[in-house]
Amino acid sequence: EDIRTAVKGESVEFIHNPDFRTTNVLYSWFLGSATLSGDHIFLHGDTIFEPALLSKALTGDQPVVLTVDRHACGAEEMKVEVSGTQVKRVSKELDVAHVIGEFTGVMLVRARVLKRLRHLAKALLSHGNGQGLFVEAAIQSLIEESPSSVGWIDITGLRWREIDFVEDLEAAREIFS
């Protein structure tokens, strides 16, 4: 409601996920993507970042471009394994010894791949645990189908923070003070 109030009078379309308590990001993206036809930026609602991160994402030329912060990762981070400019794998389950860093939750999705990505998401959602998947599962399916379709942009050094816990909020306040 706070967001609706803040953007009142703006051209904003809200897509409600009535099952948000029992589904995950893949389902929410799938619902929202039905209204899209062009290039778009996907971003996690719990990620704060400086505008330069978004500007860098827009410079990528692959059909999908992930923004990646090169740093050592722990168990909770969405880890990224690459080969040159291409993303090979993206998952929380990757071995930290083989990853270059963390996906920030901000990515560019080009119109030319949107229909295919929606198809892959729909297929994933139709399986047993599909409702609980992250959007990165559809990205990984796209990589497996077309290895050169997902690239990455290095945003190391730019300010950003995912906010999951009170400690994250405190750290974000420090970063952006």
Describe this structure in words.
The longest helix is centred in the middle third of the chain and has 15 residues, at 111-125. The chain is an alpha+beta fold and 177 residues long. Helices cover 32% and strands 23% of the residues. The two termini are 26 Å apart. The protein is built from 6 helices and 8 strands. The protein is globular and about 45 Å long. The model has no long low-confidence stretch (mean pLDDT 96). The strands form 2 sheets. Strands 1, 3, 4, 5, 6 and 7 form a 6-stranded mixed beta sheet that branches. Helix 2 packs across helix 4 (111-125).
Shape: globular
| Low-confidence blocks of residues | none
Order of helices and strands: HHEEHEEEEHHEEH
Largest beta-sheet details = 6 strands, mixed
Helical content (DSSP H or I, runs of 4+)? 25-40%
**CA-based gyration radius:** 16 Å
